[in-house]
Fold this protein.
Amino acid sequence: MSEPRTPEQWIEQFRKEIADHHVMVYAKGEKHAAVCGFSHRVMEILDRAGTDYAVRNVLTDPVLLDTLCDFTNWPTTPQIFIGGEFVGGCDILSEMEESGELGKLLAKG
Amino acid sequence: MRTGMVDTEAVRRRIEAALPGARVEVGTFRGDDHFRAIVEAPQFRGKSPVEQHRMVYAALEDLLGDAVHALALKTRAPVADHERTSP
């Protein structure tokens, strides 16, 4: 078990993760083991897009989840970052897949 | 109805109050606390999808997570008549 992190430490961690991973997902559950339908759908979309992505499970620590929602000013999960930018949740990612915008954004990486 | 529960009408009224002139459709799926909403609002013009969703979330702030366990959301700005393409 790692030491519990403070909100400040989590924010530092988020900044590092979204800089290190072209596609970073904060989800309920682990990669390919989502425990929420929306998180599952997001992973399916990214798998279909053939992109690599990292997942952090937000259910491991309540401080993590609260801090993430404050950090992004977004009340729900999953939350997706592409190229260091917050792109939104499952609904927006679905729309981006349908419009072809997701493929374009991923190709920029 | 237990305290803290809201129905689709209450969710719709909240969104319409926050975004006057909006066209709002609200339904549920997988139980009473999973909502889906389609919101078309003139206030969304020039806003990104993230900003549009934040505006709807702000209208429901105190309900989210509790009475509204999940919200599948589609947002769009109305298409002005002169922007419409012929069929």
